[in-house]
Amino acid sequence: MTRFWPLIRLVPRQTHFNFVGLAPYAAAVSALAILGAVASFFVQGMNFGVDFVGGTVMEVTTPGAAPLGQIRSVLARLGAHDAQVQIFGDPHSARVQFRSVEGKDTNTGARFVATQLASQITGLKVSGQSTVGAKVSGELVWSGVFALGTALALMLLYIWFRFQLQFGLGAILALFHDIALTIGLLCVTQIEVSMTSIAALLTVIGYSMNEKVISFDRLRENLRKYKKTPLRDVINLSENERLSRTIITGSTALLALSGALVMGGPALFPLVFTMAFGIFVGTYSSIYVALPVILLWGVNRDDEAARAIGPQPARP
Amino acid sequence: MLTLSRWKIFLVVASALFGLLFTLPNLLPNGVLPSWLPHQRLNLGLDLQGGSYLLLEVDTDALRKERLTNLTEDVRTKLQTAPIDFSGLGVVGDTIDVRITDPNKVDAAFRLLNSELGERLLTGGRDVVVQTRPDQHIRVSFVAQAANAAARDAVSRSIEIIRKRIDALGTKEPIITQQGSNRIVVEAPGESDPEKLKAVIGKTAKLSFQMVDQEVAPEDIAAGRIPPDDIVLPSDDGVQPAWLVKRRSVVTGEMLTNASGAHDENNAPAVAFSFNAVGTQRFAQVTSQNIGKPFAIVLDGRVISAPRINSAITGGNGIITGHFTEDSAHEMALLLKTGALPAPLNVVEERTVGAELGADAVRAGAISLAIGAAAIFVFIILAYGLFGVFAAVALVINVMMIIGAMSLTQATLTLPGIAGLILTMAVAVDANVLIYERMRDEANSGRGAMASADTGYRRALTSIIDANVTTMISALIMFQFGAGPVKGFAWTLSIGVITSVFTAVLVTQVLIGWWFRAVRPKSLPIT
């Protein structure tokens, strides 16, 4: 082994960043970002896919470059409402989406468009199709919202149970921050929101929570170790102590996703992109939303009360 | 914690072997492995292997209406045979209302209907309620419990019938399951043309033979002046656009024992059928009494053909002619043989993925996974040197265990599931990072190599478990919420959480333990 390998040797043993000192600026940044997200949500809105608004989406392939204009004009002639046509991955493939077809129900309409497209454009093949009825899509919206709500509630309960209520509230506020920014990202980029996006959001919540737990664990430990030190110093110390882990894990996760981001194709990209964003936001909000909330709120320094139910880390 | 107990080594070796054994079938071509080894491969989701997904809703509203119509006809027959004069028989909301003409016969009518209508319930009593109302009215309705039972029964019978119909199409391994109270999911891997499925699922296939009423003048029919026990049905027979037939069926599809594609005397495609004993007897009786008169063959409320009865048909066999092609005759025979659906089914969601699109997705997923894994390996080995190698070995075992467990349980791997797998790798490495960083802390505070390593494992464990419980919570919620691809994602994530904690903590521990025993190092390679 050399002086430079393993690389971890290059990481200083102790860092003294003043994380808490930057908190007011971070708060301003977060507030602006959330404001932007809310504005984008109301101005641009989310680009809901057929899962949530009902309708049909088809993937079609053609021998040459996909004739988007021709497909659009066929759709217009057939009376397809809210039709969108765009390139899907490689230039031979296109994605065709529409809400409904004039005078036909959802299912026969989809069938009608598929056969008409195939017969009017030579060589066009429908390689995949999804049709979701209005009733089902309405239910999916609610089950998605319900899933997110349940996730938040259960996380709060778990943190409350393992740590203190203040920690749980800090974590939940941070999660709201993460969800708001992720939804903002979906609005700004106009990435199509589908059932998979709900999975992506839940993953973002899971990862973000993971970060918070690691951070809280270290904080709780140091709160016991340094009973007289002011809370802001304990927070700074804890974050400095786990800084190398934060950087290594964050980079590992982003590196792991990089392959899927570049090579995953159009089907995987929205999910992976949202997840990658979530890793950033989740890491940031652990330091600059969850911990400041705890700092402002104060914690219970009485060891007996702070000693939550459950196993304790061993003492040296 | 770094003591190498036998059970620890055994557990690690056993799990590595398990992973290898159950992952192997996915890597080798078919038939290479000896037959006593496991040969189950990953169960790819429809988005990866191509196929069709249909979500059907049993039209319980239509079922309710039909039950009311049948009950109305029962009331009519009972009163007519009694005989008790009545007027205004009809359905009002969820009840049937009838006015008995003679006030002195209301009691008799009530007793008659109350004792003979409907069916006996398992819980005692009958499934209909008969009430007398002012002004000689009688009301009949189903008890709520019976209506729910009928809907439940309709869903489970529908599933059976759909299964029979799809099996007859030769679709490979269709998966048919109930969802919620009145929905049915049909998944057909490899079937990229859902129209074939919808053609056999979408038809109720309710068959009945009904006598044609020839005693009403065409002008009266046109003006809507028809007897209450008659009904006008649209026709596909090409002879006339609609027929006036008796509401009461002579025989119904339930009395069929068999049906098959056949040809009539002109060699045109037709459907041959045979009746059971009851059907044979009824058909013989009616045909012998009505020689020379036409009867209508009705399928799903439309007349297919209305042949004239030339002679009494006593053998219980016959053929249905109509405007059939070879294919449509076979399809109808199939539908008749498998029986009618108790209620119409509506397709409320439909997804199809072509085999090529699926293959593209598999390729993209595999490349993503490979790049992700390679990136993690390189990074973690660069960062932690020998300990990074240990973490990488643990990760390989982890991925094998996940793939092995998913192959064994035949859990579905979907495209989002592959993303889940990639993230799981990252989170698994996080556990090792936590452990190694703890070791560095301990070493920095002046402990020896062995003590640092040992304490590192011990103190990181709570954080690791806490962190993974939260991931598990979100995975379980996804599992509850999602359908298809999202469920696959949740599965992969949940299995991954369990195996990651195991491999990141135990596998690296055994490896580091061995290393300590072999090298007896003075310091850790990561400090």
Structure, described:
The complex is a heterodimer of chains A (316) and B (527). In chain A, a hairpin with a 1-residue loop joins strand 3 and strand 4. In chain A, helix 6 runs antiparallel to helix 7. About 3% of the residues of chain A have low confidence. Chain A contains eleven helices and six strands. The radius of gyration of chain A is 25 Å and the shape is elongated. Chain A has two domains: 211 residues, Multidrug efflux transporter AcrB transmembrane fold; 78 residues, Alpha-Beta Plaits (2-Layer Sandwich). By secondary structure, chain A is an alpha+beta fold. Chain B is an alpha+beta fold. Chain B folds into three domains: 206 residues, Multidrug efflux transporter AcrB transmembrane fold, CATH 1.20.1640; 206 residues, Gyrase A, domain 2; 87 residues, 2-Layer Sandwich (Gyrase A, domain 2), CATH 3.30.1360. Chain B is 53% helix and 20% strand. Chain B is built from 13 helices and 18 strands. In chain B, the strands form five sheets. A five-stranded antiparallel β-sheet of chain B has the order 10-11-9-14-15. In chain B, a hairpin with a 5-residue loop joins strand 12 and strand 13. In chain B, helix 5 packs across helix 6 and helix 12 runs antiparallel to helix 13. Classes of the chains: A alpha+beta (316), B alpha+beta (527). Strand 5 of chain A pairs antiparallel with strand 17 of chain B.
